[in-house]
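Hey team,

Filing this mostly as a record. A colleague (T.K.) asked me to run one chain through the structure pipeline before their review meeting, and I want the input and output archived in the tracker in case anyone asks later how it was produced. No errors, nothing strange. Just documentation.

Input sequence:
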Amino acid sequence: MQEYFLDENAKNIPKKIVEYIKENRDKFDLIIFQKFINNENTPFYKFGWKRMMGPPETDFSPEMDKVEHTLFVRSTRSCLMDEKFKKLLEENKVDEIFLCGLNTDEAVISTAFDAYDLGYRINIIESLCATYNGKDSHDAAMKLLKEQFEVI
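Output structure:
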């Protein structure tokens, strides 16, 4: 829930996520938030996108600090491209993942398919997903996700 992505389509998502976690905390053994930071070694940078290189664009919404969580910093769409993240899941004996957040059509969908390919059971929390790329992009991503995964 980084400031750069919190436009009109997504501005309420951080608060909704925090409320959902507080109401359902006993259902989850591990809460992981992901933070994207672009750098000179990423395909994003290589192909001309030089945003999200640091604050204030990469700052997390202060709302997210209202719940205990593990923070994982990534520089790819899917956090599962990083061996450290995979190890974190293995060490915590994770076999089922509940995904939500931004952007539905980028990080959420990429992480969902990567996690599935690695053998994780995937659940998408639709009401806690959005994208700054607009409703049509969100809806298209959700259509694909609903065809493949449990959507709650």
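Quick notes for T.K.: The chain has one domain: 3-151. Residues 51 and 64 are 22 Å apart (CA to CA).
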